[in-house]
Specification:
Oligomer: single chain
Distance between the termini: 42 Å
CATH topology of one domain: Cytochrome Bc1 Complex, Chain D, domain 2
Mean pLDDT: 83
Bound molecules: heme C
Helix content: 25-40%
CATH class of one domain: Mainly Alpha
Largest sheet: 3 strands, mixed
Low-confidence stretches: 1-29, 31-36
CATH architecture of one domain: Orthogonal Bundle
Structural class: alpha+beta
Strand order of the largest sheet: 2-1-3
């Protein structure tokens, strides 16, 4: 990673090994900020697309992993900003929230192989509001999600007890 380029490399490498691979890639933003040219005019309105003014629903839950800016954490939590999965047919992200997701996955050309727990305990309304927020923020273009759509996927997948693999999810009847 670009941050590791000085005499701190051996120390960081050791730390990464000690931590079992370093699950927290938290410093790129810091280092990018530090490396940014200080001369950039403060008023340039071309920064990352702002979150929208849509109600956030339960996004605080998702934000713990997918981050406030929707960018996720490379290698650990995939991005929601620009995700072809999140912005695709609504039943897919609905099914992910209801039952969780595990195993190999590619988002925006990057590989993940983690586990997301199910959030089916959230109400249909909360899931709809949260997904609508995500699909309408950070430059995303997914259509709004209704509570009725969530209810339909919940009914169609109600026998499901394990987190989906991406493979299963693509074959599943979701509505
Ligand atoms: C504890 C961490 C965590 C939380 C909380 C979490 N996720 Fe995830 N999410 C993940 C991980 C890890 C994956 C990838 C799983 C894999 O590798 O198979 C994922 C994958 C996804 C995906 C598919 C991939 C993508 O980037 O589009 C969507 C959509 C998603 N999550 C939405 C949500 C929503 C909505 C919430 C809140 C209701 C949420 N997640 C909460 C960790 C989390």
């Amino acid at each position: 990673m670009s941050i590791v380029r000085s005499a701190t490399l051996p120390a960081l490498a050791l730390l990464a090994i000690a931590c079992g691979g370093g699950d927290k890639a938290a410093t790129p933003a810091d280092s990018a900020a530090a490396a940014a040219p200080a001369a950039a005019p403060a008023a340039t309105p071309t920064a990352a697309p702002a979150a929208s003014t849509l109600p956030e629903g339960q996004y605080a839950v998702c934000q713990a992993c997918h981050q406030a800016n929707g960018e996720g954490v490379e290698g650990a939590f995939p991005p929601l900003a620009g995700s072809e999965i999140l912005n695709g047919p609504a039943e897919v992200p609905i099914a992910i929230v209801l039952h969780g997701l595990q195993g190999p996955l590619t988002v925006k050309g990057k590989q993940y192989n983690q586990i997301m727990a199910a959030w089916g305990q959230l109400s249909d309304e909360d899931i709809a509001t949260t997904l609508t927020y995500e699909r309408g923020s950070w430059g995303n273009t997914g259509s709004p999600v209704t509570a009725a759509e969530v209810a339909a996927v919940r009914a169609a997948t109600k026998g499901r007890t394990a987190a989906w693999t991406w493979d299963e999810l693509q074959k599943a009847k979701l509505k």
